[in-house]
């Protein structure tokens, strides 16, 4: 009966075993994973835009080479993740169509602008830092193909994080104007980076079931706290100030306290009203249309090969 299948499934998960594509799984487990993995894939693809914006204007050849490599890695992450979702029976065409139509979610963080070169440093340091915090535990997520994809993704993310921190370091040790640029970028990205971890635990509808299935290994608030604790000393080392007057070490908790977060802003960004939502979607749609000839040529070539083999 389905009841005993469900129980055996949960026992298997509780024993820290992986679920593989051909294994039986509850439909809701499959749907939750397709949702999370495809949103993650879309985030990587849309996430290429804020930094792609600076490739032509990187301040040196060395910076340009590193930035191109990073943005290219993000395309690669998107492709592994779409493939992981396909192992659950999701169709690539449907996932892409949902992104292009605006039906699918992608991370709120990529709807913020990058007006200066220092934003590239801040994204690498904070956004990739947050991504690592969230994704290292996903290397132990219960679905095998997702867990294995995360191993490589996290290795690449740690290069991205160092790349960003090193940009911040150069600016923070530069002229007063450069240090000011770094501080302003930090001011822009700090709160959005904290929002990235998702709603507070008591307002996170998917958390309880996802934790039970070991899809998520830690709650949104736990990961957010871990990120704050990790980042405060890094900011101190740079000589920059985190833009939160309530940020303070709490001896009793053994963690940093921080100020209330603007959840109304988070909800607005999710509804499409962030500073760059429209621009990101318009660019993605244009790029998809501009690339149609490549997809058509590749399909025509594949057809020709198939016909030749059949003959
Ligand atoms: N933005 O019940 P929960 C990267 C949605 S890193 C937009 O807590 P869940 C690397 C959530 O989907 C960024 N939507 O949901 C990079 C749900 O909506 P739904 C991507 C958000 O899934 C760096 C609703 O709110 N990383 O790309 C956000 O249990 C630099 C309720 O929330 C991942 O995707 C948000 N920030 O927990 C690339 C990591 N937060 O679907 C380029 C994997 C929540 O019910 C440059 N994902 N929502 O309509 C996860 O760990 C989880 O899915 C969470 C959300 C933690 C994001």
Automatic annotation (TrEMBL):
* Coiled-coil portions: none
Record keyword Oxidoreductase present: yes
Q: Which InterPro entries match?
A: Aromatic_CoA_ox/epox (IPR052703), Ferritin-like (IPR012347), Ferritin-like_SF (IPR009078), PaaA (IPR011881), PaaA_PaaC (IPR007814)
Stretch forming the signal peptide:
none
GO CC field? cytosol
Q: Which GO terms describe its molecular function?
A: phenylacetyl-CoA 1,2-epoxidase activity
Q: Enumerate the Gene Ontology biological process terms.
A: phenylacetate catabolic process
EC number in record: 1.14.13.149
SUPFAM superfamilies recorded for this chain? Answer: Ferritin-like
Q: What class of enzyme is it?
A: oxidoreductase
Q: Name one Pfam family in it.
A: PaaA_PaaC
Q: Does the keyword section mention Plastid?
A: no
Alphabetized, the UniProt keywords read:
Oxidoreductase
Protein name according to UniProt? Ring-1,2-phenylacetyl-CoA epoxidase subunit PaaA
